[in-house]
Structures are given as structure tokens and as C-alpha cells.
């Protein structure tokens, strides 16, 4: 094998040996040009990497600053010259974050998990049923209704919020978990996404199942759902992230301790050092880390699903 | 069988339709109704008050204190952040597309800001820009990390976010934060577009000896134009609804200490009026909707002329 390759490589060289001088000149010119090209290519690559690494550092800087700040002592944090690495890791900032005035992180975690899990499960059921009806079942006005649903996506959510606020007040839903779950159970976009997925599953499978006497629900459960698992996972993760990040609506309608969500609690808490009466930034940053890390972990585990879902939706959460 | 399917389909759709009817369709109708009743307040309506019908809310909203400020802030943030973040995302996406080594890692890093809580990271930006222990006329304990970096490069410190800070400085911080936050989505979409571009165009350009700069403007940008149009349109829609990044940095006072409300936006204006004057809030929400609708239409019209499919 190796001999063969060597022969092939040597062959042009030996031809070159018997070439006229002018031909050799030409070859040299070509060498020069390609050397120049290689040099340009290397320079461009160096430039690209320099640019990308600088941008990446800028993107990462807030994360770095958040983490090292959460481990500094208050004196070190407030020093005139900021340090780029904690002199001593002060882990007690994290317990201070849990004890901060009116924060009660444990409760906030619990509330957010309850709302996140329940709303995701219910929303999956509602979305699957609706997507199935639009993809597989025949009924009058199907296309018009689907178009009307899609049209509502153009309207900014703030337009609904005013009336929804009055509605949930009238229902006496304020300061309950219901108010955080029910109004957002239907996402037209997720129905659309799943319907497209369902449509890709060949109709023959459905007809075969019908011949076998399989019920619609059983077919949905045994065939459609397993085949659409990636989309369902994307929806699940985005929905959970939504609960974790939601701020405006929860602050408006469920801002009591028993139902407060984590983002609302974080923004509302005050971190004051009792001795100096100054803002205790390290404790605040520790709380921020506690809120941020779970999302980053979920992202690292489910990168593919999140990026897939996001590139198609264009919405955050 | 057909008939059976009919009612079955409606059964499958029932939960969706119920929720949509109560929380989407009714709000559309009711928002229009409330916007046409002068200074509508639902509590007073229950108490038996009646409201004058007409366009009074739309007239008064424009005169109402803070509205023009909110509208201006929203416009400025939109017009400044969308082009910056789109250009930057485009350059980063092109750069990412022309490297191989550690590309996946860099891609992951650039996506990180997306999976964060915009309130939480806003607080980090506040911590980075703030001067610790500062009061007007009082020397701060520390000028903060950003000012320290500026001073290390020979600049002078700037009052970015503390009491007495100028609107320009506040806006710069907001723009940096919003761009930081907006990059991941745009990079993701543009990189996805780049990867589906036919390599032949680039080979042809190479053969012709076209410069990189020219290749970028004459080949990459036109071929990517559908994706660029998409990120610009979604960017404008998001920009007009800007609210939580300001809350993240400045708290729900929507401004630096002593200047609450100075950085308020359209969405903030709606929420401020939500409790007591739903007529005015509804009028503002409809104005916001019309603005978003018109800007989206203009964007689509421009992209129809410029976008290369």
C-alpha cells in the first residue's frame, strides 16, 4: 500500500526532472502563489479565531463575574480594586442567599417546580389532542379554524393580559396555582409544530390500525406519540424553561409567598448587609447563580432539542 | 363513521377551544371595547358607573404623562439594538461557518445567553456596571468592574446606572444587555441558513478571484436574506415588547435611583395602567399592536423587494 502511494507521489517529480527550464519556472510561480494563498488562509483563520474567542469571552464574562462574585467576601467585593479571582471561597454566601429577607428560595423552587411540571403535563395533553384532531380527523371548518388559530399568533400577548387580569380576578383565581397554569395551557405554536410532525406520519399506518380495530386514542398513544418524541421533548423543555423564567404575569396575579415563582422572588428580594447597610452583592449573586445553574444544566443535557425547538419558534420560553 | 368522527374531533379540540375562547378571543373583543370607553375601570363598572363611548382614550393616552417617553424609549431601543445585534450575529455566524476546530464548543458558548433568566442576568449586568457605595458628591467604595476596566485602559469612570446617571449612559447599558441577550437566537438561525447554502457559489467566486469582502456582500448576504429578514422581523417584534431586561437591570422602578420611570417602555406603560384605568391600558395595547403590525408589514414589504429566494 505505502509503496503504491509513494510511487504516485514521486511520478510527477520525475517528470518534472526532464521538463524544460521554462516549465520549472512556471512551477515555481505556482508554488509561490499557493504559498501566498496558504499564508493568507492561515492569517484569515488566525483572525477568525481571535475574533470568535474575544466575542466568546465577552459573552462568557457575565457568567464568570456572577460566579466569582458569589464566592467573594463582602469586603473583597467592595474593595476599590476588583479582584479577578476570590482570595478565599466564601461558600456561606449561598446559605445567606437562602436566608435573605423575604426570599425563601426553597419555597420558590417548590412553587416553580409545581407550576412547571403541572403546566407542562397538561399542556402536552391539550396540545397532542388538538394537533391530532387537526392532523388526522375530518370535521367541518377544520381549515378555517386552523387558520384562525394561527392568526392569533400575530397579536402581542400584552393585549390579552389586561382582560385576562380582569377575568382571573372575577374567577377569584388570584394567588392560586391555577392562575399560573390555565391561561397558558394552549400554545398555538406548539399545536402547529406537532401537527406538522403528525402529518409526516404516513396515513397508511392509521388506516391499517383502523382495519385492525385499534381505537383512535390507542393509535395516538402507541404510534403517533412515540414517533413524535423529539418534538414533544422540545416542547417539554421550552415549556419548563418558560415557567422558570416567567416574570410579568406571576408578579401581577400570584405574588404571595405560597405561590410566588422564582424569578419574581429573586427580583423582589433585597440583599442588605446588616452591618454596613450596603447591598450584599455576593449574596445576591449567589442567589442569581442558584437560579441560573439549573437552566444551564438542562441546556447542556438537552442541547439538541432546545436548539431545534428555538430555531423554529423565535420566542423565548 | 364520518359522523362519529365529527363529534370526536370536537371532543379532542374541546380543551383547546375552551381556553382559547376565554383567554384569547374574549380578550381581543374586550380590549377593543374597553379602549373605546373613556377611562374605563372594571371595578367602577361593577359599581354601576357608565363610560363615555368614543376615541377619548386614544387622545388622552398620547397626552398622558410618560407615554411619549415610553414610546420614545421603546423606539430607540428597537432601532439601535436590532441592527447592531443582526450585524454582529451575521459576522459571528459567518466566522463560525468558516472554522472547523472547536466550532461546536464556540457555538455552545454563543448560545448560552439564550438559556438564562433575563431578570437574573440583568442583575449581574447591574452589578458589573454599578459603582458600589456611590451617592452624588460622595466617593464610591469601588467603581465596579466595568469602570475598573475603563480606567485600566486610561479612560475615566462613567456613572452608568447609579443615582444621577444620564439617560444616554443608561441606554448604553441596556443596549449592551439586550444585544448580548439577542445574539444567540440570531446566530442560531443565521448559522443554520449558512449551512444550507450551496457551496458552488463560493467555489465560483473563488475561481473568479473575488475578494472575501465582496463575496460576503454579494453572495453570503443575498443568499441569507430570508433568514436575515426573519431575525430582523422577530427582532423588531421582540424589541417593541421590551420590558423585562429593563426590570432585570433597574428593577421595577424602570429607571435609576431617583429617576423612576425614565426608562419605561410601552409594555411597562400598559402594566402601569392595568389596575386602575383599563381603558387607557387597552388603548395603549392596541397602539402597540398597530405599531408592531405596521413595522412587520414594512419589513415584509422591504424584504419582498430585497430578499433573494
Secondary-structure map:
The complex is a heterodimer of chains A (317) and B (309).
Chain A: H1 2-17, H2 21-70, H3 74-77, H4 92-99, H5 105-136, H6 142-152, H7 158-170, H8 178-181, H9 188-199, H10 203-211, H11 216-227, H12 229-245, H13 248-253, H14 262-268, H15 281-301, H16 303-313
Chain B: H1 2-35, H2 42-46, H3 56-63, H4 67-97, H5 103-111, H6 118-129, H7 145-152, H8 167-195, H9 200-207, H10 212-240, H11 244-250, H12 266-273, H13 278-306
Descriptive report:
The complex is a heterodimer of chains A (317) and B (309). Mean pLDDT of chain A is 85; it is low at 1-19. Chain A has helices at 2-17, 21-70, 74-77, 92-99, 105-136, 142-152, 158-170, 178-181, 188-199, 203-211, 216-227, 229-245, 248-253, 262-268, 281-301, 303-313. In chain A, α5 packs antiparallel against α12 (229-245). Chain A is mainly alpha-helical. Chain A starts with a helix and ends with a helix. Chain B has 309 residues and is an all-alpha fold. Chain B has a domain at 66-273: MetI-like fold, CATH 1.10.3720.10. Chain B starts with a helix and ends with a helix. At the A-B interface, α2, α5, α6, α7 and α12 of A face α1, α4, α5, α6 and α8 of B.
Can you tag this structure with a few keywords?
heterodimer; A: 317 residues; mainly alpha; MetI-like fold; 2 domains; 74% helix; 0% strand; flat; disordered N terminus; B: 309 residues; 13 helices
Largest interface, with counts of residues having CB < 8 Å to the other chain, equals: A-B, 89 and 90 residues
Report the average pLDDT across residues of chain A: 85
Main sheet attributes: strand count, strand direction, barrel closure of chain A: none
Low-confidence stretches of chain B: none
Count of domain modules of chain A: 2
Structural class of chain A: mainly alpha
- What is the terminal separation of chain A in angstroms? 57 Å
DSSP helix fraction of chain B: over 70%
The CATH architecture of the domain at 66-273 in chain B comes to Orthogonal Bundle
CATH topology of the largest domain in chain A: MetI-like fold
**The CATH architecture of the largest domain in chain A:** Orthogonal Bundle
Number of helices of chain A: 16
